[in-house]
Structures
1.
Amino acid sequence: MRIKEHPILTFEAKEEIQFYYNGERIVGYRGDTIASALHAAGVKKLSESIHQQRPRGFYCAIGNCASCNMEVNGVPNVRTCITPLEANMDVRQQVGKGRVR
Ligand code: FES
């Protein structure tokens, strides 16, 4: 969900950026982080807890908790809440502690 209209604030149109989430093409916008683009696209579960595989999503949104760790372009443990979105990124839900491919 994105706020498109607001009674006080204005939002300038930004460049669309296409990227991949678990192989599916998704559109975000310049200035998004990976996690904010996914959240706007309806993806709320970003990772799972390591031991009990409970769903994890946005929590601190400032890079302090690791709740949003994902595999980005083959690199595990990327904190997607503070990582700027780039075109054609390959973003995948991480399993466990993650593995370097
Ligand atoms: S949500 Fe806490 S590090 Fe990303």
Note: Residues 34-40 form the longest helix (7 residues).
2.
Amino acid sequence: MSPNQRTPSSKKTALVTGGSRGIGKAIVSRFKEEGWNVATCATRASSLTESPADLTVECDVANQKQVRAMIDQTVAKFGKIDALVNNAGFSGSNPLSPDSSDEMWHRIVDINLHGTYYFCKYGAPHIPNGTGHIVNIASVLALKGVPDQTAYCAAKHAVLGFSRAFSHEMAPRKITVNTLCPGWVDTDMGIGRIQAIGMTVDQVDKTVPLGRLIRPEEIADFVYFLCTSKAASMITGHPLTIDGGSLV
Ligand SMILES: NC(=O)c1ccc[n+]([C@@H]2O[C@H](COP(=O)([O-])OP(=O)(O)OC[C@H]3O[C@@H](n4cnc5c(N)ncnc54)[C@H](OP(=O)(O)O)[C@@H]3O)[C@@H](O)[C@H]2O)c1
């Protein structure tokens, strides 16, 4: 059922994927602080028991059936999705050789790219015309490459390409579609990657012109700005970099 066939709830609703920790958890909290209904998911329901979200769903974003079920549950409970934030992501090394396993490649592409695609495909019909927003969380690795991470770089570049194209499809409905491209963020994933490349947080801080990792709450503020500010109402289709100056 489309939102235009329902009586819209006076309260706004955000659907944020991957809300059990890190950036997603901060985004869930930001929308809750502002009085929104919030639905979120993770692969394990047990990781969401403490979440302030109004609806928590065990959903693997790479599983099309589970994505459809989560959207159905969200729309059944709240009637619409005013802000769709595709945040769930997974990173890892996949150095290429003729003998390397393809498993990591497929898992990284499935979660980062196909998860975003499924939620946009099935979520967009429930986003109200004129007031809705989609924010896809990519990475600075949507804009540059690093060794050992061909899958993650390919998936995040593809999220950006998808979002650019999809912004044109959503524009006649006055729905914005933007891609956030964070640099190093202080989360399990960020710290895990820093350790995986044999660096310390202090060393990484020195590579960032503004001198530190990004806090998850800073990404959450940026997402909230894109979904609510008048100043953001004409921003669509863009990669928006929040990286402390690393890419400059
Ligand atoms: N941290 C960084 O430095 C950084 C930089 C640039 C971009 N990003 C991007 O920012 C987003 C959030 O990253 P983060 O640092 O907050 O990562 P994180 O700390 O690893 O958290 C990832 C979240 O996504 C969920 N998730 C993972 N796979 C999922 C799946 N298949 N289905 C549903 N949920 C899933 C996780 O929950 P479960 O594991 O419980 O399922 C968790 O809630 C990702 O898209 C990431 O690529 C991160």
Note: The pocket of NAP is lined by residues 17-24, 41-44, 47, 59-62, 87-91, 111, 137, 139, 182, 184-185, 187-190 (CB under 6 Å).
3.
Amino acid sequence: MAKTIALYSIKGGVGKTAATVNLAHAAAVAGHATLICDLDPQGAASYYFRVRPARKFGRKKLLQGGKEVEKNIKGTDYELLDILPAAFSYRKLDLSLGDTDSRKALKEIFRRLTGDYDYIFLDCPPNITLVSENIFRAADYVVVPCIPTTLSTLTLTKLLDFFAAEKLDRRKIIPFFSMVETRKRLHREVMGELAGASEYRFLQNPIPYLAEIERMGLTRAPVAAGFAGSPAARAYRELWNELARLITVG
Ligand SMILES: Nc1ncnc2c1ncn2[C@@H]1O[C@H](COP(=O)(O)OP(=O)(O)O)[C@@H](O)[C@H]1O
Ligand SMILES: [Mg+2]
């Protein structure tokens, strides 16, 4: 049975897609059958893998699940790594989910795929919507990139409150520090404060702010596909190892 890992934040531009692409690639390199489901209508993860959905694939097919979804899973240039590309019509996924009146629709859909993979990564759009609520129920883990500023802590607290209010399992939430610039005093201070705070459970390995990661828009490849020994490749690999250990231990 695959473990489902959602990369999620209320905020955009915090490194969700970068983490999805690079952690999923690290999982595949480590020998695990891995699937990325690009759930963001902007399709950034799909773009990085140079993959597009079939013209007929969209939110309705996604919600039909089963064969309609399996048919649209594509291979990538990397062994053991597949992707279900996002369709632009996902921007109205909220409406369709409203019709089905189900907060577990996505959970059912991904459950069908878990036999074929060890890990399923969900690259999520920002905001708290019916889609995100569905994602929270579908995912075993909700991994949250946090830029170490005061505001990002606030959004993390909001997410924890939302989980409590909706009676979701808060233990699913696993934050990590993203786009860290240690020369910035604020970053150092916020990390110092939060790293040990037991209510947040931050992963120990941060992802630094690195031009190499920014350049993925040009290279359109996971960072470790270029040079596996680069600082960015190493940072994601170490983050993945830590996360994988945590998942295995439970
Ligand atoms: N650690 C990082 N260092 C430098 N640039 C980054 C880093 N993480 C992400 N970026 C860049 O910042 C932008 C937003 O990142 P992205 O992963 O798309 O965020 P999100 O999916 O949360 O909207 C992208 O251009 C990406 O290449
Ligand atoms: Mg994104």
Note: The pocket of magnesium ion (ligand 2) is lined by residues 16-17, 40, 44, 123 (CB under 6 Å).
4.
Amino acid sequence: MRGLMKTARGFGNLELLELDDPIPKRDEVLIEVAAAGLCGTDIHIKHDQAFYTPPVVLGHEYSGTVVEVGSDVTSAQAGDSVVSPATAYCGKCHQCKTGHMNRCTAEDKRILGTSRANGAFARYLVVPDYIVHQVPKGVTMEEAALAEPMACVVHSVIDKTPICPGDVVVVQGPGTMGLMATQVAKAMGAGKVIVTGVTSDEWRFDIARRIGADLTIDVQGQESPIDIIKAETDGRGADAVIEASGACVACTQAFEFVKVAGHVTLLGVRGRPADIDLDPIVVKELTMSGTWGTLPSSWVTTLRLMSTHKVDVSPLITHRISLSEWEKGFELMESQKAIKVLFISFE
Ligand SMILES: [Zn+2]
Ligand SMILES: [Zn+2]
């Protein structure tokens, strides 16, 4: 099979290489990849701006069909449609034992497409059976390939953001995560979801409105975004703000958009220190959450939301290409012309 491998540290060093087909160990399943999504993390690895241990086949957002299972595997069988998180947690460290498997501290941890485990940008991959989830009926394999980012959003929005029915929620950044957060906030009963972005996001705003956003705001537009949000909330501000743009300035805006005693959730890292006035947290008595990755329960919830059509990720799939066109996929992401690029052929 051919796999897109990060061969060494440094910028680039990506090669589509001929590799041996993987063989499942006793507790592993061999999966034929149906669809695999390009993620910002893959771009960061290309640019040498993320944690990874080369050589490794990239790709951690995928769906696939089980083709073979190891002798100890009882939870999956050949023919099953499956997805899995990227990280194989140990179940033994303090974080795992206290329910924070997303922050497992085991040093030999396997992370698909990043460290010690070849990922899904290849025809086959192997994963330990205990992290596999079955794809429910009614969810297509292309949709299931977006379960990984959706599970991250489910953890951020459902587990970590107190949203009550009727609430006004502001989502900053109409990228993959922000658009998914919009859908999840709606599924939780938010009365109004307002998506903010910049002028160049106009085409993303169209998608945001199509998938349920009640209002979109260009923060670089003529009218002050704070005034618009105040007008939408009887002068009070949003009940919750979900920061999904990664921009440092958006944190400052989040403190302005949110109401007194409201909540701000940071979805994703900034990657650099920010010079931010923290006094609004004190003066407005705000609460805040940071969130990282997924818990096993995030996957159960995600797949239920997908199968009951409480969320619809299909409008977020803007490009479908073959793995042989990987350079085009990276270019689409780097030039911000895509929401989600899927590899759907691995010849
Ligand atoms: Zn990802
Ligand atoms: Zn652990």
Note: The longest helix spans residues 147-159.
